[in-house]
Amino acid sequence: MDFDLTWLLWGLPIAFGLGWLASRLDLRQLRIENRLAPKAYFRGLNFLLNEQQDQAIDAFIEAVQNDPDTSELHFALGNLFRRRGEYERAGRVHEHLLSRADLSRADRHRAQHDLALD
């Protein structure tokens, strides 16, 4: 078996460089997404304070799409739907929360309570 040491000497730095490049691109995308979520969240809060619930719901939906792991945004969105009388949409939001495996025990109880109110 003929093993060429040149392939090893060139292959390792190239593989390392490609791995580093892939990790940098992923981190850059995460930073961009993390900047978008707070903007939409604060825009939604501003709409709520100005009693513009339709625009607040749109902003919170955008924030949830940018950061789907935040349970508080889901609760706020479900409560807004319920307040507007859209009980089916509120129920879907709370059912989605209950389907998540990473939900804490307190949030799970809160989601069950909110689902019962829907």
Could you provide a short overview of the structure?
With 118 residues, the protein is mostly helical. The chain has a domain at 36-117: Serine Threonine Protein Phosphatase 5, Tetratricopeptide repeat (Alpha Horseshoe), CATH 1.25.40. It is 83% helix and 0% strand.
Overview features:
118 residues, mainly alpha, Serine Threonine Protein Phosphatase 5, Tetratricopeptide repeat, 5 helices, 0% strand
N-to-C span: 70 Å
Order of helices and strands: HHHHH
Count the strands? Answer: 0
CATH homologous superfamily of the domain at 36-117 - what is it? Tetratricopeptide repeat domain
Unreliable residue stretches: none
Shape-level CATH architecture of the domain at 36-117: Alpha Horseshoe
Describe the structure.
- The structure is a single chain.
- The protein is mostly helical and 118 residues long.
- The protein has a domain at 36-117: Serine Threonine Protein Phosphatase 5, Tetratricopeptide repeat, CATH 1.25.40.10.
- Helices cover 83% and strands 0% of the residues.
- It is built from five helices and no strands.
- Helix 1 runs antiparallel to helix 2 (53-66), helix 2 (53-66) packs antiparallel against helix 3 and helix 4 (87-99) packs antiparallel against helix 5 (105-117).
- It starts with a helix and ends with a helix.
- The relative contact order is 0.08.
